[in-house]
Every structure is written in structure tokens, then in C-alpha cells.
Amino acid sequence: MIGIITGDIVGSRKIKDSWLLSLKNALKVVSEQNNKWEIYRGDSFQVEVEPENAIKTAAYLKACIRVNKPADVRMGIGIGEVKNKRKKLSESSGDAFINSGFAFDSLKQAKVNLAIKTDFQDFDEEINVLIKLALITMDSWGLVAAEMVKLALENENLVQSELANISGRTQSSVSEALKRAHYSEIMEMDKLYRKKLNQKISK
User: Fold this and answer.
1) pLDDT band, very low/low/confident/very high, at 74 (cuts 50, 70, 90)
2) pTM for the complete prediction?
3) Which InterPro entries does the UniProt entry name for this protein (predicted)?
4) 60, 63, 81, 80: which is closest to 71 by C-alpha?
């Protein structure tokens, strides 16, 4: 079982191309340098992730793109099996890819920027409600909030004083930015998602 995130950059034609380098670097980080990612049609992408890391990865990708204000990103997460695994992600097939495409296609109608689709309908309903609530804050991340979320996710073992040293900001401004981004609540959602996903998979 794998996770596939399909996404595109919102309004990419109206904004500077600085998001492209951010996206490439972010995809390298989340695919752990295994190159299981692809950018196509200019502003669309796909990346393979461990199923349990899908929510955290989506939050990280969003933070990386939101740093390039006013850029934003739409993403559909699909969890499922792989039927044919090819060198190019776009040529692979299986439920993970179908689910990801379905989740992505549902975004416009649902008027949201992130959704998940698995083979467990009750799980999807529950997690998508949590995602919608999380998006209330994630969609309004400003530059500093996005920068701090990105930094915190890249350095999860560091405390805020150490994040302050890296960023050149004061500890209070790091703390304030993460609070404004509702970082701890998003991490709580991620924890609950992992727990419920593992319960479904192990049944």
C-alpha cells in the first residue's frame, strides 16, 4: 500500500515562477531523495509517500508553496495498492493512483484545497472533515507562518529556541508564528490520522 499525492499550483500563470524551485526542493525532501515524484503540464505534480506520512507531507508541501505568496496548492491524497509500478509515476497504475485522481478531481466541486480518498468510506468522511477544519487556518498561512511551519517540519527534533537560532528570529516570534499557523493542532490531526489509518490497515 502506498500514498500518492496529486497536486497543482493555484493560479500559477498569474504569479512569478519562484514557486517552481520551492516545489522541486520540497518534492525532493518528501520523497527522501528516491525521486518518486514528477512535475508535468508545467504546474502539476505527483509524489509517492508512505501512507501514514500523507497528511504531514501535504502540510509541508503547502507551507513550501505558501512561502511564495500569493501562490497556493491544491492536492488530492490517494491511499491504496499499486498494480503496475513503472519508472515514471504517471505511467504506474493501481488504486492509489485512481484514489488520488478522484480526490484531486473532487476539490473544485467541494471548494477545498486538500482531500483524501482511500478504500474506507467512513474513514474518508471523518478525515476529510478534519482536513476542512485544518484548511481554515492552512489556507490563510502568511509568509512567516508558512516559513516557520516549513522549518518546524524539516527539524521536528528541535525545540523552538533552536528553530529561532536557525531562522534568525527571536524565540517569541517563532512561537507566535507557529501558534498563528495552529501548528500543534495540525500535528494532533496528523497523529489521529495515523492512528485511524493503522487501525483500518491492520483489520
Assistant:
1) very high
2) 0.94
3) SatD
4) 63
